[in-house]
């Protein structure tokens, strides 16, 4: 009995397996035709884009930039980033060409010189819409934005690099209550208007407002801090000034915060961020970093992996206390902050994942100390322009075996270069004033003060 049951199941299993193997990865004919129409429309008159989209080929799910659902074999994603040859001039996209794609959820049209929409139907089921750098849009683009509310399922919207100049985002934008990702970078926006609108998008997880010409204080009264689902906030490269608002402490879901390249006053202690227990990455570089008495009773709830605070000439007096409590750092950059301490070999000892440590021009002195045990993950170490003295330790190769770039010019090192560094290309032409030591493993371009030689 048990045996016969067993026997009858085996062929069924084999059939299922063979079906999976032999079913052609074809695609829906209606969608294949539409893809070819789309190709014609963006190649018109003489383009050469999308060579794998061929008339004789039935397997359109295998075509480049096309993703299909495994179960329904319908197109779910189209990545048309830069597919159109710029020499062909403006593209008036016929949005009705997308009507056959009933399960299309992601469409990227970045950088195709779309100048307008001939018809504006066909994208209602879409949940991801990337319309970056549609530089020469006409009134029909305005119409598209007005009708954004007609995309009820939109969760990811990218409208960066469009020179929108604040005229965007009519009532349609207000209806996008389900938005999780919103990228409006590199448009000139009015911060009070935009945060009023965005403050109502309670599901927002990623907000990118880089280079939007915001100025003045961080617009907290308009609801920025109410976005407590936000995981990523990028407001870098604006003209914001003033102190970090205390209400930042309420944005407890934040994992990545980028406020670099503004005129903000950021305490070296990072105390306004201590309650952000999920914060992994903070970029505060190119702002006004200032020294602040560390409050001994407070310690951060975060463990950072990426920390960038490089600046132009601020005085911090000492390494901030919170740094002693970090053990997950991978990248740390404190370039140009006057710290006036010794070489922080404890940073390497505490942070075994540390890959890149930049302490150029930090007024550090004393000897160059190696970690007490070998640190395999450190690959880039920049300590130029300090007051280090003494010998370069001969054991450097044994203790930092993964080192690829070592910048240590403009210090007071004396003695000879350890023979271990013979395996490196050695540059001594970078400074005329002082002796100079710049090393990089052969075949690795030397990263020197932010530029590649
Ligand atoms: C397209 O190709 C045709 C025939 O090869 C040619 O006559 C025409 O000038 C080309 N047009 C452009 C815009 O290159
Ligand atoms: C669909 O199948 C491919 C290839 O087998 C696989 O890589 C992909 O993860 C699958 N996608 C989904 C959504 O299951
Ligand atoms: C847009 O495409 C649809 C579907 O292919 C077609 O019926 C319609 O005529 C096109 N509209 C224009 C203005 O080309
Ligand atoms: C929006 O998504 C829901 C759930 O996935 C789906 O049932 C509905 O048909 C979609 N709406 C449109 C207009 O595609
Ligand atoms: C935007 O498009 C123009 C040409 O259409 C191109 O030159 C420029 O590099 C693009 N900018 C970005 C940021 O993609
Ligand atoms: C921004 O919008 C607010 C409120 O609508 C308005 O008072 C202010 O003048 C605008 N600012 C600029 C620079 O347009
Ligand atoms: C954090 O949010 C709560 C509730 O919305 C509010 O009462 C409190 O004042 C906020 N904290 C700060 C520092 O703004
Ligand atoms: C940080 O959280 C603690 C307890 O979770 C709370 O007592 C404190 O007020 C918070 N700090 C700020 C600035 O919100
Ligand atoms: C080094 O830092 C000082 C102050 O911290 C600053 O004034 C100076 O411009 C920096 N030097 C370089 C080469 O950036
Ligand atoms: C980091 O190093 C300092 C100095 O050795 C030590 O006091 C501190 O406890 C260490 N922190 C961690 C998290 O290991
Ligand atoms: C070095 O980094 C890799 C990944 O980047 C990680 O898998 C490995 O554990 C790290 N090694 C140490 C000693 O931390
Ligand atoms: C320094 O020397 C290297 C190797 O000879 C050379 O490639 C590089 O261009 C030089 N850099 C400068 C700034 O002269």
Automatic annotation (TrEMBL):
KW Signal (keyword) present: yes
Localization annotation: Cell membrane
Pfam families documented for this protein: LRR_14, LRRNT_2
UniProt entry tagged with the keyword rRNA-binding: no
Domain Disease resistance R13L4/SHOC-2-like LRR stretches: 179-413
Domain of life: Eukaryota
InterPro entries recorded: LRR_dom_sf, LRR_N_plant-typ, LRR_R13L4/SHOC2-like, RLP_Defense_Trigger
Keyword field: Glycoprotein, Leucine-rich repeat, Repeat, Signal
Membrane topology: Single-pass type I membrane protein
Native source species: Salix brachista
A cellular component term, taken from the record's GO annotations: plasma membrane
Gene3D superfamilies given in the database record: Ribonuclease Inhibitor (3.80.10.10)
Ranges where the Leucine-rich repeat-containing N-terminal plant-type domain occurs: 29-69
Predominant localisation class: membrane
Protein name: Uncharacterized protein
Signal sequence, renumbered to the chain: 1-19
């Amino acid at each position: 009995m048990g045996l016969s049951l067993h026997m009858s199941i085996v062929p069924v299993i084999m059939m299922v397996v063979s079906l999976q193997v032999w079913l052609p990865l074809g695609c829906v004919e209606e969608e294949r035709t539409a893809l070819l129409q789309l190709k014609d429309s963006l190649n018109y008159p003489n383009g050469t884009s999308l060579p794998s989209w061929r008339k004789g080929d039935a397997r359109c799910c295998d075509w480049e930039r096309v993703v299909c659902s495994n179960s329904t074999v319908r197109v779910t994603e189209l990545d048309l980033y830069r597919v159109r040859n710029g020499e062909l001039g403006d593209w008036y996209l016929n949005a009705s060409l997308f009507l056959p794609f009933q399960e299309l959820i992601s469409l990227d049209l970045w950088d195709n010189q779309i100048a307008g929409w001939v018809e504006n139907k066909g994208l209602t089921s879409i949940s991801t819409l990337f319309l970056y750098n549609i530089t020469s849009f006409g009134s029909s683009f305005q119409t598209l934005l007005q009708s954004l509310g007609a995309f009820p399922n939109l969760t990811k919207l990218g409208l960066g690099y469009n020179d929108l100049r604040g005229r965007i985002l009519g009532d349609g934008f207000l209806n996008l209550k389900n938005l999780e990702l919103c990228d409006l970078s590199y448009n000139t926006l009015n911060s009070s208007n935009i945060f009023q609108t965005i403050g109502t998008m309670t599901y927002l997880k990623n907000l990118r407002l880089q280079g939007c010409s915001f100025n003045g204080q961080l617009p907290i009264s308009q609801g920025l801090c109410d976005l407590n689902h936000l995981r990523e906030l990028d407001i870098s490269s604006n003209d914001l000034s003033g102190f970090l608002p205390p209400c930042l402490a309420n944005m407890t879901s934040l994992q990545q915060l980028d406020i670099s390249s503004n005129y903000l006053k950021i305490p070296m202690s990072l105390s306004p961020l201590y309650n952000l227990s999920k914060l992994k990455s903070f970029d505060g570089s190119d702002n006004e970093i200032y020294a602040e008495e560390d409050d001994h009773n407070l310690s951060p709830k975060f463990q950072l992996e990426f920390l960038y605070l490089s600046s132009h000439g601020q005085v911090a007096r000492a390494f901030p206390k919170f740094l002693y409590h970090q053990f997950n750092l991978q990248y740390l950059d404190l370039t140009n902050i006057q710290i006036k301490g010794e070489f922080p070999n404890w940073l390497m000892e505490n942070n075994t994942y540390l890959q890149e440590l930049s302490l150029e021009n930090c007024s550090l002195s004393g000897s160059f100390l190696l970690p007490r045990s070998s640190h395999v993950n450190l690959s880039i170490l920049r300590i130029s322009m300090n007051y280090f003295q003494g010998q370069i330790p001969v054991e450097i190769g044994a203790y930092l075996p993964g080192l690829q770039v070592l910048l240590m010019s403009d210090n007071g090192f004396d003695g000879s270069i350890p023979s271990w560094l013979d395996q490196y290309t050695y540059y001594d032409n970078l400074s005329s004033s002082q002796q100079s030591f710049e090393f990089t493993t052969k075949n690795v371009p030397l990263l020197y003060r932010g530029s590649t030689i």
